[in-house]
Write a structure and sequence with these properties.
By secondary structure, this protein is α+β, with helices and mostly antiparallel strands. It has two helices and eight strands, in the order αβββββββαβ. Strands 1-3-2-5-6-7 form a six-stranded antiparallel sheet, covered by helices on one side. It has a two-stranded antiparallel ribbon with strand order 4-8. Residues 1-8, 15-25 and 165-173 have low confidence and may be disordered.
Amino acid sequence: MLREAAPVPAWDRAEPVPCTRTPREGMVVPVASLAGILPPDDGGWLLVTRCEAPGGEFTARVLASPLPHAHGGDVLIIVSVHERQSGPRLVRAQVLAVARADLVRVAMWETPELASWPARVHPAALFAVTAMDWLEARGADIGADSAACLDAGQITGTGLPLPGEYRAAGTGF
């Protein structure tokens, strides 16, 4: 009698991604397919590869440890699970944009529902992708050549760069 191999969860099938502007390794998955699957203990990182309007395609490259760097203009999602002293564990999903060498939090949710985070992050990821494309098209220095270390402790939240005609003196962008 032949036995089917048990499917390996998507988080576990990820391959390390080298530090390049367009990673060529790592598995691209529909983000919705990760609903209900526990991320790794240190959090599951995703690099958004395609994000269309709700109901459209929403895919990401699964990033495995050791984590690579991301570059200005990239949009990332990190999903982690946190135990609480009482009540159900919480799932934290964050959407991040990379501006220059900074990880900027675009949105964050905490929910006890492991299955709902992909639908919650889709609009924020779409906003971040659209905003980064818009800023780059208008001459903002998003730091496409600057590498940001992917570390949840390094999320700055300092804001996105402004297009050249709106740069404020002393902003650093």
